[in-house]
Amino acid sequence: MKLLIADDHELYRDALVMLITQHFSEYSCTEATSFDELIQRIQTEQDWSAFIVDLHMPGLNFVAGIKQIKTHFPDVPLIVITSSDNPEDTQSAMAAGALGYILKSMKNEEIIQALTLILNHGISIHPAIPSEAVSNNTFDFTPRQQEVFAMMSKGASNKRIALDMGLSESTVKIHVRAILNTLQVSNRTEAVLKAKQYLDT
C-alpha cells in the first residue's frame, strides 16, 4: 500500500514520512516537492492508498488542483496538510473532495489519529476549526460512520461495535469522536438522541 506525500518543505516532509513509517509500517511513502511532480507521479503509478498534499505547495491552484487530483483518482482519499486554520480554506478543501484537513501545528498523536481515521474511510479536521464553518452537505457521514452511528443509537458499546464491524476498539473510538464533532455534541447520550432522529427520517 502506497501513500504519496506532496510538500515543498523538506524538513516537514521528512518528519511526516518518518512518523508514518513508524506508525503505519504497512504503507510505503512516495514523495513529491511540487504539484507538477505530484501529477506526474499519480499518472505514471497506480495502487495509491491516499494522497497527502500541502495546501500551498508550488503549482497547486488550491480548489482547482484538488479537483484535478480527484478527477484522476476519485476513490483515493486526499488529505490536506497546511498551516492555515482559516475555516473558509477548510470548507473549500472539503467541498472540493478532501477527506482530511490536518494542521501542521498538530501534535504527532493527533496526526496519527487523523490518518488512522481517514485511512479507515473516515473524515477528519482539526478540532480547533469550528465545525459550523463547514456545511452539513460537506460533512455527511461516511458509510462506515453511518454503521457506527446506527449501532450507537441501539446503545452498543465501543467494544461491541468493534466486534460486530471487525474493527479495533481504538478505530471505533476515532469514528465516535468524529461523529460527536460532526453533530456538535459532547457525549454519546446526546449523539444517540440525534441518531434516533436521523434514523427516523
Description:
With 201 residues, the protein is of the alpha/beta class. Helices cover 52% and strands 14% of the residues. It has two domains: 120 residues, Rossmann fold (3-Layer(aba) Sandwich), CATH 3.40.50.2300; 58 residues, Orthogonal Bundle (Arc Repressor Mutant, subunit A), CATH 1.10.10.10. Helix 7 packs across helix 8. The radius of gyration is 17 Å and the shape is globular. About 4% of the residues have low confidence.
SSE layout:
Elements: E1 2-6, H1 10-23, E2 28-32, H2 35-44, E3 48-54, H3 62-72, E4 78-82, H4 87-96, E5 100-103, H5 108-119, E6 124-125, H6 143-153, H7 158-165, H8 169-183, H9 188-200
Parallel strand pairs: 1-2, 1-3, 3-4, 4-5, 5-6
Helix pairs in contact: 6-8, 6-9, 7-8
